[in-house]
């Protein structure tokens, strides 16, 4: 505060000017009791909408980062292949050989005129041939089974090695992403503190504090000329009353969940929150995409330390948001008005 008498700077809480001794109690009361005009209320509401928007996009981005972090570095599940059993049946080959031998023996027996001997000889020949064929088939099938099993085992070990490298790489990415999340979370906590100071001024009726849709609706009313005052704290005429009527008539979506589910539908009636959510989503997507590109190429990041924070999308956003919130707080403190 500045002394009206001599222009010296006065600290908050001082009763007299330290330069000229002028009493400043009246000055405190005058500033405290000054009512906000329409443009000041619009500015105040714009700050509130932006702070609520930043809180929303920070929460959304943090949720997405959490999901990504949980998915990184998780080992794949691979089952070792089981060698297939050789189901080649000796019996079928032997029976087939015996039948063939009987036929051959029968024909041979007729040819030599001694049927029993021909059948016996043919049967023995058939059994021998059947045994040889069965053995060859069995050995060939065993070789095929061994070849296929070895191929499967090679693929199994190759998958294990590839998964091991993937996990190692993702753990490095996870460390970088966790560091980015910490930067954003720190700014998220600061935004909540700034919002608390914003609402603590008592300009907004307590029922509507921390209500994104309500604050955005009030701003729409003022910018469209529908309202020029917020209204008395008990409802009264003004933005509070207009908002209550719109909610009762279901002209607007009152809850943030309803707004998100029908974002395009509210465009004409709730422009401020529509544009805030759309911009918040866009910023969030850009932060996530740029962070994803950074963590994939972890070789460019020096072990996820604070020294790289300013060079990342989230780090730049957090620094920009912190500076902006300081300006907001300065404006709010400088314009120490009350709502009438």
Account of the protein in words:
The chain is mainly alpha-helical. It has 2 domains: 37-73 and 170-334, no CATH class; 90-165. 67% of the residues lie in helices and 0% in strands. It contains 9 helices and no strands. The chain has helices at residues 25-33, 38-71, 90-112, 115-200, 212-224, 239-248, 256-261, 271-296, 313-334. Helix 2 packs parallel to helix 8. The chain starts with 24 loop residues before the first helix and ends in a 6-residue tail after the last helix.
Furnish the topology, listing elements before pairings.
Elements: H1 25-33, H2 38-71, H3 90-112, H4 115-200, H5 212-224, H6 239-248, H7 256-261, H8 271-296, H9 313-334
Helix pairs in contact: 2-4, 2-5, 2-8, 2-9, 3-4, 4-8, 4-9, 5-6
Count of alpha/pi helices: 9
Q: Nearest-angstrom radius of gyration?
A: 41 Å
Unreliable spans are: 25-33
Spell the H/E element sequence: HHHHHHHHH
What is the share of helical residues? 55-70%
What shape does the CA trace take? elongated
- Please describe the biggest sheet, giving its number of strands, its sense, and whether it closes into a barrel: none
Derived structural class:
mainly alpha
Strand content: under 5%
Would you tell me the overall average pLDDT?
A: 82
Tell me the total number of β-strands: 0
